Amino acid sequence: MSEAAPRRTRRRRPPRDAAATMSLIAHLTELRNRVGKALLFILIGTAVAFWWYDHGLGEFIRAPYCGLDPDLRALGTGGSADDCDLLVTDVIGGALIRLKIAFIVGIVLSAPFWLYQVWAFITPGLKRNEKRYGVAFVAASTALFALGAGLAYISLAKGLELLLELAGDGVAIALTAQDYIGFVIALLLAFGVSFELPLIAVVLNLVGVLSYATLAKGRRWIYFLTIVFAAFVTPTQDPFTMLLMAAPMCVLFELAIQIARQVDRRRARRAGLDGLAGLADDEASPLDARPSPLDPRPSALDEEPVAGPSAPTAR
């Protein structure tokens, strides 16, 4: 009897991600579940913020207004610094203001949870390096928005004081809750969204749309347009708030330019190793037509017995 040929072991493929091979109906079902969970987290955050409003949140929002000179407030002309209540001019205005604040704060409080739902939905369709960039992008955008909102809250009291003092002597201003809350939200959003612009420049450089040479060449225009942008976006329109927004944005843009410089250097070094440095965009890359060296090691197929025609048996 001939010895049995050794069985060749097959290399096992890595298991496929089930989420990456779902049908359209399955994707829609997954999207519905993720959106439902995200809305549930936002609802829980809104409920927490609604309770928090009477336990420090309302005082935190009114603090910049309460820190002003009592003579600037119509309800504070008695000389008491604690008398800084906001006016409500309709029956349901107070409830709507509280719900509005609770909803916005609830979105901020539940951001890690609903951002995770968004990330869990789009992750199966991304490559490994795209997943890494995505995590860094989410973390950086969250930090930049928080930095912008924090600077906006710091500048809020100074901006209010400057604007109210422009009314002149003998004028006391009574702010309604709707006007003041709308002003605060607009200022926080303006600072938070504006601080995301340098991050967009970094993302465009990572995907190869915006190069370091272009950013460095237009550095002066970037700084000039940043100052103009801050002058138009800030709701207070005062120089203090404008400079408080423009100066950190210029620093962040300079940081984005330096990041683009390092990315382009690494990209050029990698292209140089591949022999593609110095090629124009419409020039074909050279091909190596030399044959690869032969492998002198015996193949596993040579060790297997070859089945030939069987010899006739003598009778």
In short:
This protein is mainly alpha-helical and 315 residues long. The chain has ten helices and no strands.
Number of helices: 10
The residue fraction in helices comes out at 55-70%
The secondary-structure element order is HHHHHHHHHH
Strand content: under 5%
Distance between the terminal alpha carbons, to the nearest Å?
A: 20 Å
Total strands: the figure is 0
What does this structure look like?
The chain has 315 residues and is mainly alpha-helical. Helix content is 60%, strand content 0%. The chain has helices at 24-52, 57-66, 93-109, 111-122, 128-165, 177-194, 197-206, 212-217, 219-233, 239-273. Helix 5 crosses helix 6 (177-194) and helix 5 (128-165) runs antiparallel to helix 10. The chain is flat. The two termini are 20 Å apart.
